[in-house]
Amino acid sequence: MKPRRQHVLLLWLLLSSGVLTEAIEPISTTIAVGVAATLTAFIASYPNMFFYFHECCRPEWISFNRTGLQADLDKKLFGQHIASRIISKAVNGFMTNNNPKKPLVLSLHGWTGTGKNFISKLIAENIYEKGMQSSFVHVFTSTLHFPHQSQFLEYKSQLQQWIKGNVTNCERSMFIFDEMDKMHPGLIDCIKPYLDYYDNLEGVSYRKAIFVFLSNAGGDSIAQTALDFWKGGQSREEIKLKDLETLLSLSVFNNNQSGFFRTSLIDKNLVDFFVPLLPLEYKHVVQCAMAEMEARDTKPNQHVADMVAKDLIYFPKAERVFSVKGCKTIESKLDYYL
Ligand SMILES: Nc1ncnc2c1ncn2[C@@H]1O[C@H](COP(=O)(O)OP(=O)(O)OP(=O)(O)O)[C@@H](O)[C@H]1O
Ligand SMILES: *[C@@H]1O[C@H](CO)[C@@H](O)[C@H](O)[C@H]1NC(C)=O
Ligand SMILES: *[C@@H]1O[C@H](CO)[C@@H](O)[C@H](O)[C@H]1NC(C)=O
Ligand SMILES: *[C@@H]1O[C@H](CO)[C@@H](O)[C@H](O)[C@H]1NC(C)=O
Ligand SMILES: [Mg+2]
């Protein structure tokens, strides 16, 4: 069993208070000795106590919570039955395999505000004790980290060094590439070797790492399919992965605006799962608003949620089926209504 970090902290406090009083009042020496003895016994049974204070690449800080991920996908993620199933299967399979042949590579696609960053956060939180704050989770945003096309060669070697350095530090590292659409295709190609089936590259094994790509590429064709289902009177839940999969990889691959454009990532099947995110409907936006109110410790108010949801722009204009910005502007809208 893992000792709880809180217990360790408590012992630590006890000890320091014991030591302090000892300096003032000799009678407490007995207490201090008692506490010290307890602590010694404790350290003897958990020799790696040090690791409870500093995040490090060990199971105390990195361990997959399968039920936690499933619960989060079920309760916190709205309207994404396809993505939810793929993510759960993919991450469960990968994290419970002690000897994966290649790193896990996921590519999430969909309109803005449909939950791409949100899903990567849920994954990180159920693997790393510190979630997105973990020093083993790295987010690269193309417009922030790689803004100038002209400095491509510098970015390339920098990115390769970062990935190599970080995986050398901890093989269970997670890399999230945000705004893949805006990334130079050559930059994607330069990380290809890390995603492939190699035992190791220059002595470093990348097989336990996780790579997640986020982009809007393919979002329009996903939305079109969802709209076709809606127009045909079929429920959203009837949309299957196979209705979207081919379409998605084609539209991503052949779209010259996408960071994937004709990259060998797709050519060589290095992406394990293309994850389509469906555009969100009115009822999902209401759910997002309710969840956000709960997160702010204000009593969820259906009336406010409705007002927020009504404020958004929907597509197509006449039928108002899908929220154009998904759940993205809910937070600021709530500030206004609450
Ligand atoms: N499907 C969803 N279920 C629950 N909450 C959601 C969902 N989609 C979005 N949200 C909420 O909206 C916020 C914004 O979503 P997120 O940042 O994940 O969008 P995105 O898909 O990354 O969009 P973009 O393409 O603009 O980066 C999230 O923090 C989350 O609170
Ligand atoms: C895993 O997640 C569940 C649900 O969030 C939580 O109750 C449980 O304590 C977690 N388990 C561990 C080992 O952290
Ligand atoms: C790990 O990646 C970060 C960027 O997220 C970078 O700043 C850092 O230098 C990298 N570490 C190593 C050891 O390369
Ligand atoms: C991208 O493709 C479209 C048509 O598919 C074309 O009109 C446009 O000029 C292309 N842009 C670039 C930068 O190649
Ligand atoms: Mg995002």
UniProtKB/TrEMBL annotation:
Position of the signal peptide: 1-21
Xref: InterPro entries: TOR1A_C, Torsin, Torsin_1/2
One of the record's GO molecular function terms: ATP binding
Key words of the record: Endoplasmic reticulum, Glycoprotein, Signal
Keyword Hydrolase annotated: no
A cellular component term, taken from the record's GO annotations: nuclear envelope
Gene Ontology biological process terms from the UniProt entry: nuclear membrane organization; protein localization to nucleus
Entry-linked PANTHER family: TORSIN, TORSIN-1B
Boundaries of every Torsin-1A C-terminal domain copy: 280-337
Subcellular compartments: Endoplasmic reticulum lumen
Similarity section: Belongs to the ClpA/ClpB family. Torsin subfamily.
Primary residence: endoplasmic reticulum
Name of the protein in question: Torsin
